[in-house]
Task: inverse folding
């Protein structure tokens, strides 16, 4: 497979959040601001990259019948590493993301990459796929976070752009669904063109 | 009284799906018909309650005394996935009709973040076992309520003339958003 295509496929055509609708819980739960979305995306990028690498190395040793539990244990190990490292060095972000860090383990997007890609492809392709898909996930979360922060707090990455209060509803739970709905509609339009 | 507060808080105020964003995959995946939505709700109720009890006991009597709480995530997910497998085998033997009705929803339960999320929350909030069980049951009732409401709306939406760009997932998202807005009206009652 063409590696450049392999890298870029996640951004629009197979975008995990907007097109495949995977990993929606963290996509909606952590994107109250662009920075939180970016942080969550980066944490997921690390986990998906490392699990892709390990799954791809061990794909010939893992018996087919117990592959899903094995993948979950591999993913859970990297999630634990991420959780502990973030708690030690990025206390503020860790507190903001809270429950959603351990929940990366049940993010169907990460397991989906292990099952659908890393278990069938070479180490190099799986690494590229992990980075590309992880960046696409980060992009989606940052876009959603930026939209919500812009509409809800008139700010972007914590910098206030317009004086006064925004539409608070976009920072709260309902705004997450509504903002994602319109972003998916936009993405579908882009995909067609 | 404290139990009533837990129930109302979990079902209406902090609804697991619409306010806490857990379990969204099944919410959008299996909410096209009310009957399947109710089946999913029943499966979640069962697995969530049992999983919370088992993980609570494991954390209290094994992980904490041995000082290995950093293994929490791995332990919990292994407990949940083997529990789901066990429930599947037992149901197949004991009650084939129920097994048939739940079908594909049972294996999917492993990657339902609501189950793992509630198991972690029960332990984080320093509940007693009984409080934890009530917490888990009311959260699964909240999940069932949200998914059935959305399924009901979606069944009606089939007949409507929706703008082309919003067809499919976008309109479901906006609908869920409006549902979440309605649930925000319960904020502050406990």
Result:
């Amino acid at each position: 497979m063409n590696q450049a295509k392999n890298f870029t496929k996640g951004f629009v055509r197979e975008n995990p959040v907007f097109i495949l609708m995977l990993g929606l819980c963290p996509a909606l739960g952590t994107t109250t601001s662009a920075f939180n979305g970016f942080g969550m995306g980066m944490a997921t990028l690390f986990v998906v990259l490392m699990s892709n690498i390990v799954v791809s190395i061990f794909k010939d040793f893992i018996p087919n019948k117990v592959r899903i539990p094995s993948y979950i244990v591999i993913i859970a190990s990297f999630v634990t590493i991420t959780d502990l490292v973030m708690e030690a060095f990025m206390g503020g972000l860790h507190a903001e993301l809270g429950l959603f860090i351990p929940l990366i383990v049940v993010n169907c997007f990460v397991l989906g990459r292990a099952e659908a890609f890393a278990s069938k492809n070479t180490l190099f392709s799986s690494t590229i796929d992990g980075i590309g898909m992880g960046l696409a996930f980060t992009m989606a979360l940052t876009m959603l976070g930026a939209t919500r922060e812009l509409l809800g707090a008139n700010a972007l990455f914590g910098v206030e752009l317009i004086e006064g209060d925004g539409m608070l509803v976009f920072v709260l739970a309902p705004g997450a669904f509504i903002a994602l709905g319109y972003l998916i509609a936009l993405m579908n339009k882009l995909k067609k063109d | 009284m404290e139990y009533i507060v837990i129930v109302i808080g979990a079902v209406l105020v902090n609804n697991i799906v619409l306010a806490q964003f857990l379990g969204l995959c099944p919410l959008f995946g299996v909410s096209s018909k009310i009957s399947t939505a109710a089946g999913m709700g029943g499966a979640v109720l069962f697995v969530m309650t049992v999983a919370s009890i088992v993980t609570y006991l494991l954390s209290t009597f094994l992980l904490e005394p041995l000082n290995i709480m950093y293994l929490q995530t791995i332990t919990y997910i292994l407990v949940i996935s083997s529990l789901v497998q066990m429930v599947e085998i037992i149901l197949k033997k004991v009650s084939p009709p129920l097994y048939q009705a739940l079908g594909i929803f049972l294996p999917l339960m492993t990657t339902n973040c609501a189950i793992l999320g509630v198991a972690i929350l029960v332990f984080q909030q320093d509940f007693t076992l009984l409080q934890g069980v009530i917490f888990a049951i009311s959260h699964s009732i909240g999940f069932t309520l949200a998914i059935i409401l959305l399924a009901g709306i979606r069944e009606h939406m089939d007949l409507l003339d929706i703008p082309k760009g919003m067809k499919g997932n976008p309109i479901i998202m906006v609908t869920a958003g409006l549902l979440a807005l309605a649930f925000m009206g319960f904020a502050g009652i406990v």
Chain B touches chain A through 41 residues (CB under 8 Å). Chain B has a mean pLDDT of 84. The first helix of chain B runs from residue 2 to 13. The two ends of chain B are 11 Å apart (CA to CA).
